Amino acid sequence: VSTANESDNTVASVANANNYVNNAANNISTIDLFPLVGSALNSTLIPNSLFTSYTDHSNDFNSDTRSWLYRGAYTGEGTNSGWHLAIDKKPVPNTSTASISDITWNASIPEIQLFPNPAKERAYLKFNHPLSNIDLSIINIRGQVEFQASYTKAQDIELNTSQLTKGIYFIQIKTPEFLRVLKMIKK
Description:
Layout: E1 21-23, E2 32-35, E3 112-115, E4 122-140, E5 145-160, E6 167-174, E7 179-186
């Protein structure tokens, strides 16, 4: 949003995104949301006076003072190494917001260990207490399910990872009480 009334924002369909940015791919490893030269997104910066009424206008979403060296907890920046995508929405005045301190611990959600990580031939899941009605999926970085299984009751699960290719996977653990996703690296 570039002004308080949003009158000069660029509005278009997602299908036309490549008219405005370098690469609007749906793959996180190739996405590059840096504005195209000559596109409607290239313009001059507006004064920040519209935003300075917020007491935390110079903070990122971690409540750290904004810095061009540290821009939040991100691990990648697309394919343009000089520009990081950062989305830091500010709350509308006089509305309710939640913060990490508002979350209470739920003891019914188990602690889960995944080891070794990175995995080679096998990986193991260990729960701090037995779980019932577990649906487990291994999902690749493209969102494709590589493995699925259901367990009536378990406290330890052995995963055969020998058939997986090297890369990043997500282990989705779902029970009637919770859904948890862990990241696993396959060597």
